[in-house]
Amino acid sequence: MQTKYIEFTSGDAPEFIEAAMALREGKLVAFPTETVYGLGANALDSEAVRSIYIAKGRPSDNPLIVHIADRDMLEPLVTEISPNALKLMSAYWPGPLTIILKKTDIVPDVTTGGLNTVAIRMPDNDIALELIRKAGVPVAAPSANRSGRPSPTMAKHVLEDLDGRISYIIDGGPCRVGVESTVVDMTSEPAVILRPGGITPRMIEQVIGRVELDRSILERKPVDRPRAPGMKYKHYAPKADVFVVSGEYGNIAEWLKKAVTDDENAGIKSVILAAKEHIREYGLKNAISYGSIENAAEIASSIFRLFRECDRMGADRIYVEAIPKEGMGLAVMNRIEKAAGGKIIQAGE
Ligand code: TXA
Ligand code: MG
């Protein structure tokens, strides 16, 4: 299959309209959102949705998020919308918040991995919204990476993974948020966050009061049967072995210096991803800055890209300095710990 690359210019460009029509008719179209690039298919077309799983090499019990452009698109997809769900939509849509509701029969089983619920989100990206509007159908879209690889935050990442496996890719530049949307289950009381993301737990609490965190977020190792099926797989991982290094910053620095030297002596190519302040303060070698320790949002927007860059550098090991699990730090650490698959080092103990 030839993948047609489109650099976005305007919603009226003939090639953009062609991609939207192809999407409606069952083809796969990768497109930018504010979080990561999505791999879109007509959510109401079982065959089209099935082809997403094939292109990604994704297990088919892992349900997809259905993307909509406006509230009118929501009504036919869900049986009811609770007052709290409505409040969240008003507060954070369009935005990086995915809301799980009970599905109607028009949503095919393959879209929801056989569940009787459906995950819905309205992305905060004009290109995505225009594409969905022009296609005129809700769009099922997982992140546009091969299953298990870091999520794509630039069009070139999508091409790295999916060139020749999908019909179109629309390049809308780098993604602003950089980690996936927060997934919140509104079918239970209290609501439960199944995946931390661009909207923090506090932001949700400010609107609807108490919200729980699913245990898969609190456990550092993959759990057996998480409520968001996607959370059980090794995820977001570069080819290199990822290690999370946590503890006091001084201890982390000591540990990293020794590890890099030991690796060097053993012929292992290791790379450190750490805060720019610490790289400077501790004079760390082989280190790349993921942003400022003061700014978890900045780290979120660079982490997946850096994982891919480490692969390109041929790294065998990546040591990632942990950050506090506060605000966006919760989502960032969730992705890093998943990439590490449980390899977590407590420096100084
Ligand atoms: O930011 C995002 O959400 C990106 C962009 C493209 O919108 N999409 C994304 O999709 O991250 P994906 O497929 O990579 O992740 C969807 C997550 C998975 O963990 C999945 O298990 C969970 O949402 N999920 C989807 N539907 C669900 C449902 N009905 N019940 C529980 N979890 C669900
Ligand atoms: Mg994904």
UniProtKB/TrEMBL annotation:
Q: Which UniProt keywords apply?
A: ATP-binding, Cytoplasm, Nucleotide-binding, Nucleotidyltransferase, Transferase, tRNA processing
Which terms under GO biological process does the entry name? regulation of translational fidelity; tRNA processing
Where along the chain is ATP bound? R58, N62, T117, S143, S151, R195, Y236
Organism of origin = Thermoclostridium stercorarium (strain ATCC 35414 / DSM 8532 / NCIMB 11754)
**Which family is annotated?**
Belongs to the SUA5 family.
Q: Where in the cell is it found?
A: Cytoplasm
Q: Which GO terms describe its molecular function?
A: ATP binding; double-stranded RNA binding; L-threonylcarbamoyladenylate synthase; tRNA binding
Q: Which reaction does it catalyse?
A: L-threonine + hydrogencarbonate + ATP = L-threonylcarbamoyladenylate + diphosphate + H2O
Record NCBIfam families: L-threonylcarbamoyladenylate synthase
Q: What is its EC number?
A: 2.7.7.87
Main localization is: cytoplasm
Residues that hold L-threonine according to the record: T35, H67, R121, A141, S181
What does this chain do?
A: Required for the formation of a threonylcarbamoyl group on adenosine at position 37 (t(6)A37) in tRNAs that read codons beginning with adenine.
Which stretches are transmembrane? none
Name of this chain's protein: Threonylcarbamoyl-AMP synthase
Q: Which domain of life is it from?
A: Bacteria
**Ranges of residues in domain YrdC-like:** 13-199
Q: Would the keyword Manganese be found if you checked this record's keyword annotation? A: no
GO CC term (a single one) = cytoplasm
